[in-house]
Every structure is written in C-alpha cells, then in structure tokens.
C-alpha cells in the first residue's frame, strides 16, 4: 500500500523512450499517444498504442490500471486486462509500448539540487545496476514464449507442423509470406484440411482464418517475405513489441540476438515446445536483411528475431543473395542464415486493420 500517488513510476523498456522514468504524481494519470496525456507514449509510424490508451488511478492506497477501450488492449504481465491492481515489479504493455512499474519518486527539490549534482557521477553506476538491470535472454524468452505459435494443419490422419508465427496485434499472427501461401494452397487443395495455430508449451489450438500477404512479395523471393494470419481466440498471447524505424536503423554488427521457433525435427505438434537459439548480428544489408548465425531449420520460418530487451527486429527467413523471380536481388536461401527486418511487418500492419 502507498501513502501518496507519487510512490511509483513507470520506466519505459523499449522504443525511443527506453530508460525514461515518469512519476505518477496525480491520483488519476491518463496514458496514451496524444500530447494531452499525463504519460505520453511514443507516436511513430506503426505505433500500436491508442491516443487515449489507459488510465492509472490511485484508489484506496493502491494503483489500478484501467484500459480506455484501446484498440490493441492493455496487458499486465502478459495478460490482457480491463482493470487490475498494479505495483512495483509489474510489467505493463500499451500496444507496443512496454513499461515496468518501479517504486520511488525521482523528484528533486531545490534545496537538494546542489547535492544531487555533486553525487551524480557516483550514483550513475549504482543507478544502472539497481534501477536498470541488463535484460536477460532467459527473461525475454519467457515473455516471448507466451506469444509464439506453431503453424500446423489438421487432417483426419493427424496434425503436421509447418512453421512458426508470433502475435503482433490482437487477433493477428506474423509469419513469412511463403508460409502463408503454403497454408492457402493446402486448404485450397483439400477442403478437409484445417489450418491451426498451437501456442508454445500448451495444447491451446486456434483456428486460422484470413491470410494477408505483403503485396510487394513475389513467390520465390525473400524480399518482403512477410504475412499476417487472422486467428480467433480471446486467450491469444500479448503482442510482441516491434522495433521502430529508428531502432532498426541503429542495428549494428555484434548485437546479441535470439530466435524462438519450432524446428520440424523434435517438435511435437500436439504439444509444441519452442526452441531458443542465440547469436550475434553478423551484418545488416540494405537495411532490410539481417545476417544471423541462428539455428535456422525447417519449421523455424517466421520465428521472431529479438534483442535482449525482447523487442522484435525481424523474422527468420533464409539463405544467400541471389536474383529472385521478380528481378529483385536479395537473400535466396542456402548456406547463410538470414532474417528480414521488422520493417516488412510495419508495411503490412499499415495496410491491415
């Protein structure tokens, strides 16, 4: 229980405001992209938060988060909520903006200002260690796993796993266009085939409905190889945060990256367990292709490629550079592992509502 509203702050975990702290100083603080909010969320192309997304209310000595009928929902520790009590240690997601709830107020009074300046150099190291611990792949993988699904087909003879997909918006999974095309062809060839999405580490099965291919993708090419799958189910995991344009532009060789997906060998399609692989970013080509040393194998197409923070920078695709059927030169798929940038998903999400 807190004795005053300013006893907690929100710390941004991703995006352009990553690391920023905002104290909740009023008993009712509105959160969203619009500038008239008490806590203003990042507003950029592809933002998934709403203008007036949620409200934090200090009620009876406790903070409560309340969704304001936002488009993509308010999530508390991976669960979508309309109203719930929050406290230090909780993690909130507003669309694609992630925040941690932390204790304390960073307000500095005038009388303490001089002392704060004097001690700043000493405190900065302790602050980095105590207030902003380095995210770990173990922690991020646990969160990512809640939102990754095996794409499979059900036939009278049984279930067959095809590839991987992940939640990018309520009701929408992201995967490769070549995966989505295969799903369409299988359903067209055999009306008894049922395309499904099975959540990692669970038996939860969701039916796949409409398929949306990136309009710039051409069969046989890896360029723009992204698609969205519409699924039904209120229990869908929380959307994974996609890196914005600025973060994608800043990607550099040597950054730690990981992927989470379902290799066909060793995956039980009835109870799939996603496999984590990690490496460093080897190269970025044309701002769209990511060279990675990840364990890419059949079944992992469409796996999210993410940073230590859990922010998704791309999705697994495949191989070497070659000229595709559309005359565009890009990775084609042989001895070198490649992913495509999340920019292809931002393009697609702008077209699909």
Written account of the structure:
It is a single chain. The longest helix has 21 residues, at 110-130. Strands 2-1-11-10-7-8 form a six-stranded antiparallel β-sheet, with no helix packed on it. A six-stranded antiparallel barrel has the order 12-13-14-17-16-15. A six-stranded antiparallel barrel has the order 18-19-20-25-22-21. It folds into two domains: 8-103, Sandwich (Tumour Suppressor Smad4), CATH 2.60.200; 137-351, Thrombin, subunit H. 16% of the residues lie in helices and 37% in strands. By secondary structure, it is of the alpha+beta class. Strand 23 (321-323) and strand 24 (329-331) form a beta hairpin.
Which spans have pLDDT < 50 for at least 5 consecutive residues? 106-114, 127-133, 329-335
Number of domains: 2
Q: Report the helical percentage.
A: 10-25%
CATH architecture level-2 label of the largest domain: Beta Barrel
Q: Largest sheet, if any? A: 6 strands, antiparallel
Tags for this model:
353 residues, alpha+beta, Tumour Suppressor Smad4, Thrombin, subunit H, six-stranded antiparallel β-barrel
Q: Concise description?
A:
This protein is of the alpha+beta class and 353 residues long. The chain has helices at 110-130, 137-145, 177-189, 245-249, 343-351; strands spanning 8-12, 21-23, 28-32, 39-40, 54-59, 62-67, 74-76, 79-81, 83-86, 91-94, 97-103, 148-155, 158-169, 172-175, 194-199, 205-213, 227-231, 256-261, 275-285, 289-292, 304-306, 312-316, 321-323, 329-331, 338-341.
């Amino acid at each position: 229980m807190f004795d005053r509203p300013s006893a907690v702050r929100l710390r941004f975990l991703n995006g352009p405001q990553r690391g920023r702290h905002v104290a909740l100083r009023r008993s009712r603080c509105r959160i969203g992209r619009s500038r008239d909010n008490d806590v203003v969320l990042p507003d950029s192309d592809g933002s998934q938060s709403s203008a007036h997304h949620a409200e934090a209310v200090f009620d009876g000595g406790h903070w409560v988060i309340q969704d304001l009928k936002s488009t993509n929902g308010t999530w508390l520790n991976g669960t979508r909520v309309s109203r719930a009590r929050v406290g230090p240690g909780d993690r909130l997601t507003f669309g694609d903006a992630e925040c941690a709830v932390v204790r304390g107020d960073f307000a500095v009074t005038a009388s303490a200002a001089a002392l704060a300046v004097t001690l700043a150099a000493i405190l900065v190291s302790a602050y980095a260690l105590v207030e902003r611990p380095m995210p770990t792949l173990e922690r991020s993988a646990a969160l990512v796993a809640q939102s990754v699904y095996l794409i499979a087909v059900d036939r009278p003879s049984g279930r067959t796993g095809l590839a991987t997909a992940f939640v990018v918006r309520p009701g929408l999974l992201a995967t490769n266009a070549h995966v989505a095309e295969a799903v369409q062809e299988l359903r067209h060839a055999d009306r008894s085939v049922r395309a499904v999405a099975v959540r990692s580490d669970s038996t939860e099965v969701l039916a796949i409905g409409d398929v949306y291919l990136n309009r710039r993708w051409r069969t046989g090419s890896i360029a723009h190889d992204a698609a969205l799958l519409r699924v039904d189910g209120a229990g869908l995991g929380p959307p994974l945060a996609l890196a914005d344009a600025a973060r994608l532009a800043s990607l550099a060789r040597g950054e730690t990256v990981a992927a989470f997906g379902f290799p066909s060998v060793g995956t039980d399609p009835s109870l799939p367990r996603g496999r984590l692989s990690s490496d460093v970013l080897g190269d970025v080509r044309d701002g769209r292709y990511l060279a990675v040393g990840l364990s890419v194998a059949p079944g992992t197409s469409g796996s999210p490629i993410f940073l230590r923070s859990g922010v998704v920078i791309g999705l697994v695709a495949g191989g070497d550079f070659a000229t595709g059927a559309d005359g565009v030169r890009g990775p084609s798929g042989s001895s070198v592992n490649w992913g495509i940038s999340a920019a292809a998903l931002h393009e697609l999400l702008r077209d699909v509502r």
